[in-house]
Amino acid sequence: MEFPSSWLRDQSLGEKIASEIRLRIVRGQIKPGSTLSENQLAAEFGTSRAPVRDGLKALSVEGLIRLDRKGAFVLGLTAKDVKELYDIRFLIENYTLQCVAQADNKRLTETLHKIVDKMAMADKHNDVVEFAYLDLTFHETIIAEADHTRIFHLWNSIRSLVLTALLVATEQRFANRKHEVQQLIDKHSLLIAALESKDGEYIEKVIREHFEDTRQTVQLSLKPL
């Protein structure tokens, strides 16, 4: 599977190149210790070196590669990286869920229920790409609802890596552990119930358990170093 073209609308060529290389690294098709050549990538993607350079810079910021005079050295995604990624997700989403829980969230919960229904439909049709994107959309909808500019900037700094990890993990779930898909749908329904409860301690408990389970599943799916 290449990076879904439907997810690349309105992105620059550099961002599109970064998305494809990121997917290959996270999936393990490009191994840690490999060196990426700007010239070879430019030839593969049919472009000049400038967009390739932009894409590599983005991957460097995410910590997937290291840029030096010799080129782009692939670091990959380690178990520590996955833990840190989900630590950040917990901090962001626990805070935003607590915020929106205190407001009138009827419209939000209706939207989230619709997303969960669509996830169930994607499961029924075995649509890996749609399911992964809906998973991200569910969480991003809550973050956006909090209307916190700095937190949304922080979220955007990890969004591409989170989406790619979700895609690979979802691909593995559908292929090898299909029974987990319904469990994941149920976990999202539980998050909605926690939001509706407006109970801060319960919300933190549910979201902590959600991300701990998800982190373990992602680590299993990605088989990080």
UniProtKB/TrEMBL annotation:
Gene3D superfamilies, alphabetized: GntR ligand-binding domain-like, Winged helix-like DNA-binding domain superfamily/Winged helix DNA-binding domain
Q: Which residues form a coiled coil?
A: none
Highest taxon of the lineage: Bacteria
What is this protein's record name?
Answer: GntR family transcriptional regulator
Recite the UniProt keywords alphabetically: DNA-binding, Transcription, Transcription regulation
Residues spanning the signal sequence = none
InterPro entries cross-referenced by the UniProt entry: GntR_C (IPR011711), TF_FadR/GntR_C (IPR008920), Tscrpt_reg_HTH_GntR (IPR000524), WH-like_DNA-bd_sf (IPR036388), WH_DNA-bd_sf (IPR036390)
Record's Pfam families? FCD (PF07729), GntR (PF00392)
